[in-house]
Amino acid sequence: MSVLTAPTTDSAARSVDLGPASALSCRECGQRFALGPVFACAECFGPLEIAYDFPAGDPEGLRKRIEAGPNSIWRYAPLLPVPADVAGKPNLNPGCTPLVRADRLAAELGITGALHVKDDSANPTHSFKDRVVANAVEAARAFGFTTLSCSSTGNLAGAVGAAAARAGLRSCVFIPHDLEQGKVVMAAVYGGEVVGIEGNYDDVNRFCSELIGDPAGEGWGFVNVNLRPYYAEGSKTLAYEICEQLGWQLPDQLVIPIASGSQLTKIDKGLRELIDLGLVEDKPYKIFGAQAEGCSPVSQAFKGGHDVIRPVKPDTIAKSLAIGNPADGPYVLDITRRTGGAVEDVTDEQVVDAIKLLARTEGIFAETAGGVTVGVTRKLIEAGALDPSLTTVVLNTGDGLKTLDAVAPTTGPSAIIRPNLESFREAGLA
Ligand SMILES: *Cc1c(COP(=O)(O)O)cnc(C)c1O
Ligand SMILES: [Zn+2]
After folding, report:
1. Where are the alpha helices (DSSP H) in 40-102?
2. Rounded Cα–Cα distance for residues 359 and 363 (Å)
3. 259-297, pLDDT tens digit by residue?
4. Is pLDDT of 25 > 70?
5. 367 lines ligand 1 (CB under 6 A)
6. What is the Cα–Cα distance from 156 to 228, expressed in whole angstroms?
7. Whole-angstrom Cα distance, residue 250 to residue 237?
8. Around Cβ 101, how many Cβ atoms within 10 Å?
9. Is residue 53 packed enough to be buried (19+ CB in 10 Å), middle (13-18) or exposed (0-12)?
């Protein structure tokens, strides 16, 4: 297929070194375009994703090369749209987070197979967003952007602020004005600009799209808008890591949170790449999507048997997942249906219960998004949709310290006592 030249800025016309990335390819019509800061197909407006020239043939050699690589997502640089020397550049080196074998949680949920929690709160800014931003920063450098920006439900703003600070770029991020304090402080502490928008995430996102088309946004790389194809590839590293940590094997079932649906979509892409490259043995796997009931447009469509996703106005404590009009929603429906998985949602109360359950059984304090995945896992087991005898990986994508308000009202000291033994005995804790 011919490679068309996409409408690009001058800076993008320079030759770019993004490693094995060879072109942008339309997910809908397959048309190819030159690598540049564009995200929509000029032919059909479909989303663009990265096409690669992967090293052919030698899976054993590739596996060895990965295993000898750095202890970060850059061990997978041969499979990402980044230059080969990426690990040597100033960046936050995210990834290689723990895959925790969760036997006590499994027992509580009635799971008899191997249950693992992929704990992405262990990233530099305590959410999975460091993975996607690290990839977007390389694209921003390649295209000569000087300001890094994003529309964010919270975690992305912090990840962009930190990555820009490390890379020596200016940052200016946009968030809904009513986010959790932990997310706002985390976004602002790295010294970039943080703009609260009076509206929800979907309003923020619409505003950013306008800004990109305006002279005021010139030279700005919006990691999840005009750099979205590069950003999105960062989520593949979750698939790579999970399989490598399982001894280069596919899990049977994965439970993944859905905001825009990008992460879920690209984890599936990563798994299929590993199969195609011969790095794992091909076998069926099921992908399950998780939403909060107060923002469950994909779950509603899945359960209703619809192909079209009806946008909603989010109302949930799981603010990091509160995208009412998820861009990758239709692909999530395709993937969950194709793999034999499902999309399910839980109430805010179930989210809080699940956060506490994970903390109590495994010592992992998840943010609300982790409560959503654990809560949905429980619900899917009870419904018989998830097979309790198989290997299951549940994602925790963020840190509970950023969403303290979710658990604070029902979590606190067991007692307040005077500093003497008598007072301690009276409290009945001995
Ligand atoms: C952004 C985010 C997600 C998923 O986002 P997608 O838009 O679906 O890729 C999941 N968990 C947390 C904590 C997030 O911040
Ligand atoms: Zn197209």
Report:
1. 59-67
2. 5
3. 999 999 999 999 999 999 999 999 999 999 999 999 999
4. yes
5. yes
6. 13
7. 14
8. 13
9. exposed
